[in-house]
Amino acid sequence: RRAILIAEPQTWKVAGEDLAAALAADGWTVERILMPRGERAKRMRAVERTCRELAALRVDRKETLVAIGGGALTDAAGFAAAVYLRGVNVIVVPTTLVGQIDAALGGKTAVDIAEGKNLVGAFHQPAAFVADTAFLDTLPERQLRSALGEAVKMAVLGDERLLELLEQSGEQIAIGDPSTRESGALLEVVERCAWAKVEVVTADERESGLRMTLNLGHTIGHGIEAAAGYKAILHGEAVAYGLRGAF
Predict the structure, then answer these.
(1) Residue 97: alpha-carbon gap to chain centroid
(2) What's the pTM?
């Protein structure tokens, strides 16, 4: 038994090392592949390097990759899983709030090119999605706050309870206030967003109709990210500005 873990350096320290140790203690041989941090992972050259490492390890179709990290990492590792050997299984373990409520769900994997964000990709559903909210304790405020852009999107698409939660506890979630975990508010936001997306994707996996609603705020948001060269602004921040424009 072999576990192929894909992460970026910071996430490896926060979550990968403990996961690798637990798997090793359970008798697994653990292999590690590191991708660049953030949007830099979402480049064709980064995916090519990852695929070459998989080939060097002689990974075959019977094995499963485990992508550990934020939305950019799970996007890039998921795309590598979709194209390596024409498709291998991948388990996603999102470690950021935006990953747990949106980015790591739904099977849309992609990389960016100069002409636009996510223009090269594939639909490749994960074999499993594992969201441990304990990972969120290590996130800086900017990461937490930006993720709420995606949460607001899900709320205004029709979840009045989620909108109420964000109005009541959004500011506390944004600053990482421990009371939001104790009250269950943070867990409910993650669960409501995740299940809402699962229901949409189950009904329309290939974005032929209903799933297009999940792009609310993303037309302007993706334009902002491309104009910024995929740096200096976080995805959730761009989506929040996109929502302003759409509204």
Answers:
(1) 8
(2) 0.93
